[in-house]
Amino acid sequence: MTLRPDERQAMRMAADLAVGFRAGVGTSRVAQALRPDDVVSRFDAPLAEAVAPAAEVIERLAQDAADGLHGHPSARFFGYVCGGSMPVGVAADHLVSAWGQNSPSSWHSPAVAALEQTMSRWCLELLCLPPESGVGVVTGATAANTQAIMADRHGLLKRRGWDVEAQGLFGAPEFPVLIGADAHKAPLDRLRHAGLGADRAIRVATDDQGRMRTDALDAALAACDAPPLVVLQAGQINTGAFDPFGEIIPLVHDRGGWVHVDGAFGLWLQVVPELREMLDGVEQADSWAVDLHKWSSAPYDAGLCIVRDRAALVASMSARGDYLPTASEHWDPSDSVMALSGRARGVPSHAILQHLRKTGLRELVSRHCRLARRVAERLSREPGIEVLNEVVSNQVILACRSDARTEALLAEVQRRGRVYPSHGEWRGRKVIRVSVINYAVQEEDVDLLVEEIISARRGIA
Questions:
Q1: Per residue in 241-271, pLDDT tens?
Q2: Backbone angles phi, psi at 258, to 5 degrees
Q3: 3-class DSSP assignment, residue 401
Q4: Burial category of 211 from C-beta neighbours within 10 Å (exposed 0-12, middle 13-18, buried 19 and up)
Q5: Residue 415: is it exposed, middle or buried by C-beta count within 10 angstroms (0-12/13-18/19+)?
Q6: 48-85 residue pLDDT tens
Q7: Which of 89, 218, 413, 454 fits as disulfide partner to 348, beta carbons 3.0 to 4.6 Å?
Q8: What is residue 28's three-state secondary structure?
Q9: Distances from the Cα of 341 to the Cα of 44, 84, 304, 316, 416, angstroms
Q10: Pairing mode, strands 229-233 and 429-435
Q11: What is the reported pTM?
């Protein structure tokens, strides 16, 4: 099969347009110019009958989408915990799309399986997690948390003589689920998806930074009538705080329970030796979820589900069709993920880690944490602005004297469009949340953020 001239032109045009978009991210507004209602009419048209030239489709697509795109890759985007898609990963992602491989099958795509297996092994080493763990390369922390909780569910019920994959949850022995009162909504939703019920989870009291209190957990464990599943967090979404893993995990294991850690971004602090103490004991857990599109700056659609007992992960996920060849003794991606088809989403992360190596990733995480402290230190000196958290990682939350002032300040900063922090809520107060995690962010970017916030606050005072 050969590419037609218009197909070749379309692929080259897309590459040029992609480079042009990324080159302009640093100088353009961070916020999108239009909202959904303003954009939808450009695309919501009847599907025409005749075939259109491929290059024409790509050119029109880029043109119509331009002012409806947010500046997520910008070093001045502080709104969500997203790494901004490092260019080497984006380049590798172009290859992934062009290769068109069905990655879950190592038999049909051995190169992809080898790339993802190596990347997974590198991540286990970087995150200081047990090397024998099973790893599934998934779409992000959402899928990673879901799969890990399902594997934990399998392990807890297997110990009680119940095969949940064969027998389902109807009539299964019940077990408690414990989670911190300030846990992110994501793992609660994953409990729902795993059939365990979000509202059944027992909320355990936390301290002023959102860390689970050991004494509160101990009391909750004493009330459990069966070995529980306990969900902990490495990096509270607002404060960036970490649960006391070294104290909590042994308590849970002493009662025969399993521990899952939602470490979407916080687990990456393991790559910096001087920051590891905040994660002391996290390696004792039974499963972990981590995003690759956060601190490792992969393009969206990448995360890792990690389970200490690989057999539990495989039992929960593997669903080989009769038409698929039996793999050799080598690791097969489909054994560790829900899907039997999917893109080679681990390849961009392989390229990024091969590019950064240990030194580059360590510098990246360390720099972001240092810059977050810089933001907090400067803003805490501004009258009328209060920094509400101990800055232990990359997250900073701040507020004004009233919710109305906080909301007005954020709206003004976002309206100006030079930087983009986002909203949040903490302990009943509206807050402005700053996430310092973009791969390209430097001192001048966070200084501009501080100047914009201070200027906007003085303008609305």
A1: 999 999 999 999 999 999 999 999 999 999 9
A2: -115, 150
A3: coil
A4: buried
A5: exposed
A6: 999 999 999 999 999 999 888 888 899 999 998 999 99
A7: 89
A8: coil
A9: 29, 26, 17, 17, 43
A10: unpaired
A11: 0.95
Ordered alpha helix ranges (H), 255-346:
310-317
Hey, what are 38's tokens? 């303003």
CA neighbours within 13 Å on the CB side: how many for 241?
20
Minimal CA–CA distance to 436: which of 73, 22, 70, 77?
77
202-204 and 177-180 strand pairing = parallel
Please, are residues 246 and 253 in contact by the beta-carbon 8 Å criterion? no
Task: Provide the greatest CA pair distance for the chain.
Answer: 70
Please state, in angstroms and rounded to a whole number, the distance separating the CA atoms of residues 159 and 331.
Answer: 26
Q: Residue type at 286? A: D
Q: Which range (99-113, 159-173, 363-377) has the least confidence?
A: 99-113
Tokens read off for 24: 């302009």
Looking at the predicted structure, is the pLDDT value of residue 321 above 50?
Answer: no
Where b means 16+ CB within 10 Å and e means fewer, 153-192 reads: bbbbbbeeebebbeeeeeebeebbbbbbebbbebbbebbe
Residues 6+ apart with CB under 8 A from 27: none
Of 390, 356, 366, residue with least CA distance to 376: 390
- The H or E element that residue 422 is part of is strand 422-426
Predicted confidence (pLDDT) per residue in 412-425, tens digit: 999 999 999 999 99
